[in-house]
Model the fold of this input.
Amino acid sequence: MIRKPLRPLALVLEARSQGRNPAEIERENVRARHEQARDRSRLRAESRLLVLILAFLSLFVLVGVRMGTLSMSEPMEPQSAYTGPSIVAQRGNILDRKGRILATNLDTYSLYATPQDMVDPLMAAEGLAEIFPDLDQQDLTRWFTGERKFLWVKKKLSPEQKQAVHDLGEPGLKFGPRELRLYPNGRLAAHVLGGASFGREDVAAAEVVGVAGVEKTFDAFLRDPTYAGEALELTLDLTIQSAVEHVLRGGMTLMNAKGAAGILMDVNTGEIVSLVSLPDFDPNDRPAPPTQGNPADSPLFNRAVQGVYELGSTFKIFAAAQALELGLVQPDTMIDIRGPLKWGKYRITDFHNYGNELSVHDIIKKSSNIGSARLALEIGAERQRDFLTQLGFTEQTSVEMVEASGGRPKFPAKWEDISTITISYGHGISATPMHLAAAYATLTNGGYKVTPTLVKQDYIERGPRVISPETSRQLREMLRDVVREGTATFGDVQGYAVGGKTGTADKPIPTGGGYYEDRVIATFASVFPSHDPKYVLVVTLDEPELATEVEPKRTAGWTAVPVSAEIITRIAPLLGLRPEIEPAR
Amino acid sequence: MRLLLYFAIFGMVIAQGFWAYTENYETQKALNDAQKLQSQIAEARARLGVLNAEWAYLNRPERLHELVDMNFDRLQLLPLRPEQFGTVGEVPVKDPQSSDLPPALELSELEGSE
Done:
């Protein structure tokens, strides 16, 4: 850059010759130079400002545009993120304790029609009536040619049916994807599983909701996508369940019973290994609830957890247990059993005359009503009620099935002495077979309270102590002798030391006014092996009647007991129990 | 000198643009692959569900019962009975003295000699 001198010689000489002050020239030049410098720096500052403005403006525009696009764009699943092994929007499976499938899902289709899209409604109606014999061609024709714009034809299609409908080539017939709840084992464990049906429905999808059993109890869990289709594991064992059901069905037919229930429970944990109620149903095609008749006769009725029955002499063990536990008696204490026992206007008698006195042990063995009544009177009403409450007989069982809440025991509101007497031998109090199974487990497992459960858990905490281990042992010996030489001799299975108590209760007339003469509920509550209890089995037959030459046999000893023995023979090896020689007492 | 710098910068911009585009396309391809795999997994899962259901259906105790009855002549399968439990003592043990396996005929010979 060429610097212009502040005092150019030519101008200075010229000014001197004209008599002016040459310093003015210098000042003028300094001023000009300052002005130039000032202009330059302003320009630079202005351009910097401009750049800054542009930068901020573009940033704001960028943020604004991004916000705009975000607010206007459709929400999209992130594709790059790892979504794990589970984009499963399906209802969870239900498995048995060994992981075998009890309930699963199958993709299928529903069929719906939009008549306005139809090319040939008459042909479509004819074709559909041919594919689905249960549809009426005239109805279809009327619907397809009528005013309606939309109608469901079939809720579920099999793949073959879908293909057949597809082959009709009718554009007005459309398919909507559906998830079908499938119970591959059919009727097996139907009452436990319950069933499922469609909730809210749409063309593109439908909710599957549980309507009964564990399907309903655990509906929220099974549907919740956060559990990503995690399976629900039950304590049931498919093989055992099948064997129990098979034998029980045979026994029910043989004994001419109209219904039956069987419960197999782990004596220590309360896990239900098998739960059967007959007659049963197919949960794949769950029948509609009955609109007439007695709901307790419907196949949907779960006799094991809903059926509230007077369970008869099976209750005698509770009187004996409490009397022993309170120290009122010992197993060999003799009790006066002379009858009839008169209490107010009631007369208590025994089935047979057992003499003048029996030991507590023999009262259970021979099933003496009078003996139990005497024990109960010594215990007293209040203590009896407390004990039965401890055993769970005053409220519903906590089994994880919606039906369990329907099994509310019936007992007298005013627990008087006469109630105490009848309750001691199982009349005047009604409970479900599930109550009985849990109570027998509690009494025989060493005295810890058992809460029945259907859900497999890693660890089940032991309940509070109800009776002492010594009392529990004495009770097991009594129960064992009932089978060895008492009322349940048909129940002995070699190698498994079955112990149990029979109960035959007359059925009350539903219209009121006493009991039927010829209709009973026969129950056998058993525990095996009785020297080292593993399982409790309760078998209940509704109105059994074994025709013999002399007279029809109805007592549990002739009906429920042999069925139980057959069940134990079948399932004990399956449960991995090796037959053992009973240790000497 | 300055011109060279400009050219270098220009070249770098071009190269980076090219790199950015290839990266972009590769990402998109990877995303597409992932999506394809996801749908394949979903399909496989659905197939697995069907197969599991079919397996459970074919192994349902009712059907096995029927099969056992149908093939009784050939298989003679009966329910497991308590008597069928054995003890370890009942299992024939190899003689520790002999180094060879016992000849296959031995058992039938034993039976014949009885």
About this structure: The two ends of chain B are 113 Å apart (CA to CA). Chain B has a mean pLDDT of 83.
